[in-house]
Write a structure and sequence with these properties.
Helix content is 25%, strand content 27%. The chain has 149 residues and is α+β, with helices and mostly antiparallel strands. It has one domain (25-144): Immunoglobulin-like (Sandwich), CATH 2.60.40. Strands 3-9-8-5-6 form a 5-stranded mixed sheet, covered by helices on one side. It is globular, with a radius of gyration of 20 Å.
Length: 149
């Protein structure tokens, strides 16, 4: 009987601990490569969320090193392979398809608040400047508007 009571107490303690512990929920967001564009063009996510790229035959996904937040790790998903990246650092990330960059295959991910938006506006050139201009005109979630004007 004492063993049964001990097991029940342990179970109750474990359930209580699980309900009181902060639960971090992350999400996965999918971006499709379509001819010479990424769809959607912009993704708004939370830190710790994962972004996955699909339909990547003939495409890659590469973070543009001078157009991501300071302290963030740039990525380069190989040509023709689906893949995913988990983003933890808040800010705007501009990425491209290397073979189709000159055709405007550039897009953006906003993780949390756009903490580096001024840097992005200053550093963007060529096709990346066009996607930044579109990003500035896009409908943003109200909690992401930091530095946008």
């Amino acid at each position: 009987m004492n063993r049964f009571v001990s097991i029940c107490r342990s179970g109750v303690a474990l359930m209580l601990l699980m309900t009181l512990s902060p639960v971090v929920q992350t999400a996965e967001h999918i971006i499709n490569a379509q001819a010479t564009k990424f769809s959607p063009l912009f993704v708004f996510i939370e830190p710790g969320d994962t972004v996955g790229w699909t339909q990547m035959v003939g495409h890659d996904s590469q973070a543009m090193a001078d157009l991501i937040p300071e302290g963030a790790e740039p990525w380069h998903l190989r040509l023709g392979l689906n893949g995913n990246v988990t983003l933890d650092v808040e800010g705007v990330y501009i990425y491209k398809c290397t073979p189709h960059y000159s055709q405007g295959m550039v897009a953006a991910i906003v993780v949390g608040k756009a903490t580096n938006l001024e840097q992005i506006k200053q550093n963007a050139k060529g096709m990346s400047k066009r996607v930044v201009a579109k990003l500035l005109k896009a409908d943003w979630p109200a909690d992401r508007l930091m530095g946008r004007n």
